[in-house]
Amino acid sequence: MALLLCFSRSSRNLHRHVSLAISQSIFPHLTNPSGNHCSSNSNSNTQLYIPKFHNSRFSYFNWIQVGQGYGISTSPHSFRDLEKEKRDKRPSASWIDLHLPQIVRPYAHLARLDKPIGTWLLAWPCMWSITLAASPGHLPDFKMMALFGCGAFLLRGAGCTINDLLDRDIDTKVERTKSRPIASGALTPSQGVSFLGLQLLLGLGILLQLNNYSIILGASSLLLVFSYPLMKRITFWPQAFLGLTFNWGALLGWSAIRGSLDPAIVLPLYLSGVFWTLVYDTIYAHQDKEEDKIVGVKSTALRFGDSTKLWVSGFGIACISSLALSGFNANLAGLPYYVFLAAASGQLAWQIWTVDISSAPDCSRKFVSNKWFGALVFGGILMGRLSS
After folding, report:
1. Beta strands in 127-233 (DSSP E)
2. What's the whole-model pTM score?
């Protein structure tokens, strides 16, 4: 029911009309049998009874308090604030929308080209492993790092495409994901499949540059890549499966340099990445936890609930411990490596203990900050290897 706000120059009329507006909101069933109207429009059919209070201390400020108690906004800025809130929720235009031809924009969004954090998170374990496999006192193989960087870029995009194809029925029900190209209808599923084929073909071209052992090892990761998006339907631990998928490069980078695996070094390194993923992706999952409950998908955010910080603290400790063990087994020089590892521990502790799991923007900021954790670990491995 519309609020009738009648403005007047006198404070008495202001008192009367504010009372009328709130009265109509709170007591819409009460009408004035005498037919007196607030509006000067003679065609108005609205008749309201305005209770009269003989206690002069009951001013329009009391009415405002009553209105606020009933959820009625009486702030002159309320409509302005509401519009600002709506604008804040709208996705801002990225460089894709500003600079790319319109025909390729949906594909760029599908591959998340405007959100490079996924590529960083996929690339860092590869860089750790390649650097760890370098000869003592030598720099890592830059050509191999470039190949793995391109591979991380392509595989991350392919993973996003697979995810959006399998989750298109879910994405339409979640505010944060309903504007994705396939969910919104900007691309058809068949166009998504064709784009996926192109991404995988380019990725295969990079994989074929490696030795035979690494080709087989790399191809075996596709099972995880295709199965991960389905895990949120059947388990509260899809973040663990993402960790197994995203950190495969910790195994592959070593084998690309050495031609085989050294379990004492690469398994702790791989596990450190899995625990790291459980930290950052649990924080990330808290953005969608309320909508996930409605849609019916699972996550560690829902599994841990208010105990999230305790759980991810344990994962963080396991991550740092595994990194320390891997570095020790690889004979990294002690001081440089462990100084960087201490700094990485501080970064991880900061994001865990300062994150507000009830705030989606803060969860997103902490998630994105993990690129610096990866960089600190990489710096430690590089300094430790050069000092060996």
Report:
1. none
2. 0.75
